[in-house]
């Protein structure tokens, strides 16, 4: 009687999710005029953190090619937060230089702006602990609480609620 040997599994050949979804994303970016998704995914590195905090690429509009003529540069449409639109507009030359440097040729000739909230979710900033003065004020109003740790915790909680 022969012994049955257990079959050992081979090495896993897991592919990164980005490779599996590459075709899906490539089609979506192509519909918006982006030849490469890196302009969107690396926007903060291309435009700089100051500009990327208030503007993001929405789409690229390419003019129709005319036979026998060189391809004209595209218009990059940026979504810009309302109050910063004027400031970003004044930085248009800098943005054009940075984007064209990224592409390696004059792919973008002008910018267009759409005022709207940015699509990315902002991370809420966590407030720091309340200052000692406000904690002490709340602690005075707590009255007679024998447990000092409980009284201190309630004072911090009250000061945090009062601050917000």
From TrEMBL:
Protein name (database record): RNA-binding protein
InterPro entries assigned: DciA-like (IPR007922), DUF1159 (IPR010593)
Listed Pfam families: DciA (PF05258)
Originating organism: Bradyrhizobium canariense
């Amino acid at each position: 009687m022969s012994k049955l040997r257990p079959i050992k599994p081979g090495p896993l050949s897991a592919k990164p999710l980005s490779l599996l979804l590459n075709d899906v994303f490539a089609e979506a970016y192509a519909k918006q005029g982006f030849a490469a998704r890196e302009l969107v995914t690396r926007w903060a590195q291309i435009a700089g953190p100051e500009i990327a905090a208030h503007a993001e690429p929405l789409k690229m509009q390419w003019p129709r090619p005319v036979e026998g003529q060189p391809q004209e540069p595209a218009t990059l449409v940026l979504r810009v937060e309302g109050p910063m639109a004027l400031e970003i507009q004044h930085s248009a030359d800098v943005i054009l230089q940075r984007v064209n440097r990224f592409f390696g040729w004059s792919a973008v000739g002008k910018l267009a702006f759409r005022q709207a909230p940015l699509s990315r979710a902002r991370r809420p900033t966590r407030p720091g602990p309340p200052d000692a003065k406000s904690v002490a004020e709340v602690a005075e109003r707590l009255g007679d609480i024998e447990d000092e740790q409980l009284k201190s915790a309630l004072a911090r909680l009250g000061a945090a609620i009062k601050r917000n």
